[in-house]
Amino acid sequence: MIESEVLDAGLGDADDDDFDLEEAYDSELPENRYLDRELSWLAFNQRVLELAEDPTQPILERANFLAIFGSNLDEFFMVRVAGLKRRIITGLAIPTNVGRSPQDVLADISGEAHRLQLRHADIWQNLVRPGLADAGIHITTWDALTADERDDLYRYFQTQVFPVLMPLAVDPAHPFPYISGLSLNLAIRIRNARTGRQEFARLKVPPMLPRFVEVARTEEGVSYLPLEDLISNNLGDLFPGMEVLDHHAFRLTRNEDVVIEEDETENLIQALEAELLRRRFGPPIRLEVTDDMDDVTLDLLISELAITEQEVYRLPGPLDLQGLFDLSRVDRPDLKYPPHVPTTPLAFQPGDNNERADIFAAIRKADVLVHHPYESFATSVQLFLEQAAKDPHVLAIKQTLYRTSGDSPIVQALIDAAEAGKQVLALVEVKARFDEAANIVWARKLEKAGVHVVYGLVGLKTHCKLALVIRQEDNVLRSYSHIGTGNYNPKTSRVYEDFGLFTVDEQVGRDLTRLFNELSGYAIEKKFKRLLVAPLHLRKGLLRLIERERRNALAGKESGIRIKVNSIVDEQIIDALYRASQQGVPVEVFVRGICGLKPGVEGLSENIKVRSILGRYLEHSRIFAFRNDGDPQIYIGSADMMHRNLDRRVEALVRVTAPAHIKELEDLFSVAMSDGTSSWHLGPDGEWTRHRVDDEGKPLVDLQDRTMRAVHRRRRARAVR
Fold first, then answer.
1. Where is the binding site for Mg(2+), in residues?
2. Which of 39, 48, 201, 654 sits at 20 to 30 Å (Cα–Cα) from 333?
């Protein structure tokens, strides 16, 4: 049986063999109980599109959501679709797609992706572009320019664009050129005026130049011309003596997932660098073309790129709307979200003399829970590490780094600490997808400064967000710990919603010390007191906590489960939630992206409610809350409920114990799951329905705006005191 005193201690000493979850289950669950993972991800991206369609959103933010959609879909093809194609080739089944072949899944994905990309293009052409024009930001065409404007742009073309263009001909002496992934290109058909022979040429639109070229700026507004339009209308300069017959834009997506057999390589960094070179030449998986491309050009591209008709996406121009990110630089604050200024967490605010806070003294008083970006990363996490680097009483710093930047103050703090003679350990995850090359660069920078850099365990990604500072105080070594839900990245901390816990708790310090020792050693085998750690114990721990809620409901005790994650697809976790729901446990799931769970199914999940919230900030924190017969237990950490997180990554959750912190997290859930809050509701058929206004047409509560106001109120209340 499950021992309550063991659970109260955080499941740290429970015997894995003393309880078989399956013995508690007396009924079979229906086979068709999971939503398709890939289609659920596309449904998430549809929610992003709905924000771009929303007329109540500021127009430049709507343009930004179109860019986010494009970026998301690119990654989806480069990784998820590429993975499905690899499974087709190797004959592997797809997890959570019971009874469906990879070919069937790929066909469904292709159909839905085509629909969404057409909707994406339509929103730009018929909603966002006219909305920008109404606000004085015009995205114009060459045909709409005046003669003077064309002359000005031609001079810009000659001096700033023409020198970096590289037209590549295709003829017997010039084979079809390599097309890099995600590059925007022009396919050009030309005729030799002397011989009459038709030729083909490819021209890459330079990615280092501004995507939108300023045409004119007046009191009424500003106008821009897409760079590819400027190039297209001056092709004669690139092909003197030739007649330009036709030109069309196209864009190729390649398989850019990285696969390394770590147990077969002696040097992970060298193997990764070699794999990154191979990534550039991954097989094509999607070809986007403008819908006016002629058949001759399209047939040539399909043939030369060895791509199928299903993988061709005909779209109204312009292609690659990620370029809309550039519009965020337009100085029109009236067309963006009102500024939210992060506050310094109450515990870390300066004293009466406006002196800089003593982070260590503040943490010694009590655990500190910070909520980014509402509370500042710079005056909490960053300051914690900067003070540790300078403090003569600090002997050692240990930290995991998954995604950050080489110029990050976090990296600099570790370098400063090492140069000051402190012991510094940085566990760098060089396999963080699409950040591999950057991570290698700054990992070597750390090594040169004297930081002990390790790259984690073979076969596992280190995804947990941990920092440990060892400080000597009165001849005693004290451990200051930080466990977060987000990366140690000052840039993303401004737009990613995350929590972090600072504590001087001795048990947490011992847990982290052991965990870091195991991470820099060979294996993660032991259990911990206040941590749940993957890959061995996190899933088991959560299943036991879910099962306890189910048993409490059976016994007529108070029960309830609340989970906030980016994605939930793990079958064991989902099945445990189904079984809890069947016994009457209220289950609330707050998910940003993929959800494989079907809520509201009679006899299975009628007690499960699923909500999703998207907005100006990316909901990124992971929270797991259990009612526990009125003695709530809440964990925060880095893990989503996915196979990769629970089986193939080192993840860590920490139990939050301070009553005020437990209340803050429970209050967040209460607002997020309320019918009075703007959100998307998931139905049993997998359809997401947006709820934005009440029955009287009044806007529902915006969770993120409300949270920011609450943080500012707390600060003002302290100032008054």
1. 403, 433
2. 48
